[in-house]
Amino acid sequence: MKEIMSSNVMVQKRFTMKKMLEIYQAANRLDGATYLYSRQKAVEATSLSKLVSFLLTVEPNTTLKIIMEGNDVEPKLNQLTKLLTNEASVLRVKRKQLIETTESFQI
Q: Low-confidence residues of the chain, pLDDT below 50?
């Protein structure tokens, strides 16, 4: 069954290129869709050019939402949130919202 989870993190400092590549690689290893959302802008984390452009616009002290959709996303969300902990502090993790559909929705 597909599920959607999100985590809010507060960005402490700007992302380095190395950290951006780590986020991109982690998102590509995960089975499912991973989105980052901040200030009414969203990007799928599996597109490197879009991810880099998006993360370059994220200012320190900005809230960044990580949204994951797929099967068994909680450990994957924890892994990605842990990857961001050097650059950001975790504010809140929103628990499971189950969906029983074969279709995805667009943000």
A: 95-96
Q: Which of 65, 69, 72 is nearest to 93 (CA)?
A: 65
Token pair 């995805």 in the structure block, residue: 104
Domains of the chain plus CATH, in order, are 2-99 (3.30.1340.10)
Query: What is the predicted pLDDT for the residue at 12?
Result: 84
Residue 42 neighbours by CB under 8 Å, 6+ apart: 35, 36, 107
- Cα separations (Å) of 68 from 3, 14, 17, 43, 73? 8, 22, 22, 12, 7
| pLDDT for res 41 | 93
DSSP tag of 60: T
